[in-house]
Design a protein that fits this description.
The protein has 455 residues and is of the alpha+beta class. The strands form five sheets. A five-stranded antiparallel beta sheet has the order 1-15-3-11-12, with no helix packed on it. The protein has a four-stranded antiparallel beta sheet with strand order 7-8-4-10. Helices cover 45% and strands 16% of the residues. It has eleven helices and 17 strands.
Length: 455
Amino acid sequence: MAGLQLSGLTSGLDTDSIIAQLIAVDRAPETRMKLKESAAEARQSTLNDVATRLRNLQSAVKDLGSIDTWTESQTLDISDSTKLTATRLSGAAPGGHDVNVQTLARSEQRSYTFTQGAGTLDLGPSTHVAIGASDDGATVAGKINAASGSPFYAVFVKDPLGNTADDRLVLTRKDTGYFDPAATDALQVGGVDWAASEDLKIGVNAKFTVDGGAVQQSKSNVVQSAIPGLQLTLKATGTTSVTVGAPAPDNSAVKGKIQAFVNQYNSTVDFIRSELTEKRVPNATTDADARKGPLFADTQLTGLLSQLRGIVSDKTGIGGAVKSLADLGVTTGTGSGGTASADAIAGKLTLDATKLDDLLDTNRLDVKSFLTDPTKGISAKLTKLLDPVAKVTSGLIDVRAKQAGDEATSIEDQIAQMEDRLTQKSDRLRAQFTAMEQALAQSQSQGSWLSAQLG
């Protein structure tokens, strides 16, 4: 319960205003600390953004050096993808094949005239579903679908004419294909009275031929035995041609990795440069101003940009026809008439796709060596620069971001401590003014009594 507060009732002073003004004077350092905290938070956030972009660049650089990019691949051409699709599982014999799909695999269906009643529904030897006396068909279907390991999908189908006697509980086997219902291990449904009303529609295997050969069958529409090295997904009946290309270099994959590097490099350089050129606001008085220019003229990032530009511009020391990114068609570019463009001045890269295509056709191994050599390749050199800077947690940028975050947290703690002290001081001042008011009131009361006695 708060103590009695007398705000100027006797003295006529606005004690609340006086206390507020005194506290405001003491709070001035807190205001400056909050601005300093905002600056530290902005520095942490911006450094985290820089780290993210550098890691994205690091990933693109490592992709440049991946040997997997240079693995020969085979093309697949499907004459009618509405009838089937194909994917390569491994090396397949080059050439064309005619695949004739005669039937598609489908699942068996079991239909029942459902009647309510308690019991345990057995779905094969290992799935058992408890059915309540009041469970309707839809509820039972839901229980079957929810049962762990259930071999069926279930749906309760109501007669469209509203004749409840024709409502059906339909179970569709999850596995497609033909299963002999007379086999000793055939899947059985039982345990309840209505299971005896079963109407079974057996499943069907997929049937197809390859190049006019013998009819082949598969329980699934996904087939791996038709053409060695390929997986076919049958979608409709009819004849479709599947053409497997000869193993060949995938130049488009190499070009894609180089273009991805160029794009990420430009994005990263653009962002860092914008942060380096945003100026701080001297003697900031607002939160927005305090957050401006957290990395203005940052020496570490300025040096990093300089090193990046040096590596992408210089020769790597490797032999062959491709010794630098410029030989590959990756340069800072120039404007028309040889005048440097704004992007070139900013150090952004451009890719001459025609030059790269020619090199991949005429000097493919030199391109590969320049990109992937573990010592002198461009990927290795850029990785060596970026790893200690962009590494998660222990990288230089993450370390600086953590330091900025720790500084912001420390300032926040100091502000909280200062706020506690100001609250205590405010309480003391209020208690002192209240005591003064009470003393004045008592003095005035005594004066009035004495005057009355002498009166």
